[in-house]
Amino acid sequence: MPTPEPAIPATPAPNDAVRTVVRIARLLEHACTELTLPQYRLLAMVARGDHRVSHLAGRLALSKPTVTAVVEGLVERGLLARSEVAADRRAVQLTLTDAGQTALETTEAAMVERLKDLLDRTDDPALALAGLAQLSNALDSALVERMAEGATRA
């Protein structure tokens, strides 16, 4: 006698959604062979135009010393280049090296493949992807609010 498939609730409880997000993060983390997830996040942000450590710390919701440690490791591996900002000698500007761009592209391709495999298992891959896009927009909105609050406190 075949085992019945478990019923899927129409609207999952928030704790179920959290667990799913964590499981997806873990799945994507396993796809990262050249970079850790924090290294990937940092390289991706630099590639998008966030070039200062102070900005990266805020956007990644990490302390400056933590970001500096990740940056140091990426510089040592030749994936990032660090330079001073002419107008502010205390500021550090980061740029991807060719090796950094290659590592980023390789890691993203592996993660996209893992996510695509997962999406293909859903009833409606386009709808699942649209849900992720909505979450991305919500994260960006929350970040803008958090950074604005931080700026008003300073």
Explain the overall architecture.
It is a single chain. By secondary structure, the protein is mainly alpha-helical. It has helices at 14-31, 37-48, 53-60, 64-76, 98-119, 125-153, and strands at 80-85, 88-96. It is built from 6 helices and 2 strands; from the N terminus they run ααααββαα. It has a domain at 28-121: Winged helix-like DNA-binding domain superfamily/Winged helix DNA-binding domain (Arc Repressor Mutant, subunit A, Orthogonal Bundle). The model has no long low-confidence stretch (mean pLDDT 86).
Task: Give the topology.
Elements: H1 14-31, H2 37-48, H3 53-60, H4 64-76, E1 80-85, E2 88-96, H5 98-119, H6 125-153
Antiparallel strand pairs: 1-2
Helix pairs in contact: 1-5, 2-5, 3-4
Q: Could you provide a short overview of the structure?
A:
Helix content is 66%, strand content 10%. The chain is mostly helical.
The total strand number stands at 2
CATH domain class name of the domain at 28-121: Mainly Alpha
> How many individual helices?
6
The residue ranges in which pLDDT falls below 50 over 5 or more consecutive positions are none
Major sheet details: 2 strands, antiparallel
Question: Roughly how much helix do the residues carry, as a percent range?
Answer: 55-70%
Report the CATH topology name of the domain at 28-121. Arc Repressor Mutant, subunit A
What is the 3D shape?
A: globular
The largest sheet has its strands arranged as 1-2
CATH 2nd-level architecture of the domain at 28-121: Orthogonal Bundle
Decide which structural class fits the backbone. mainly alpha
- The protein's oligomeric status is single chain
Distance between the termini: 66 Å
